[in-house]
Specification:
Length: about 40
Amino acid sequence: ALIFATLSAINAISHLLKFVFFIMTIIELINTIIFFSL
């Protein structure tokens, strides 16, 4: 049960990191668009 809990925690963290990376990429893209449109 402990191994399963650890694996699910690692899985959740990796999903969270992917989500954060996705958000940061979108923010960078928006910043670039704003920068070039000025």
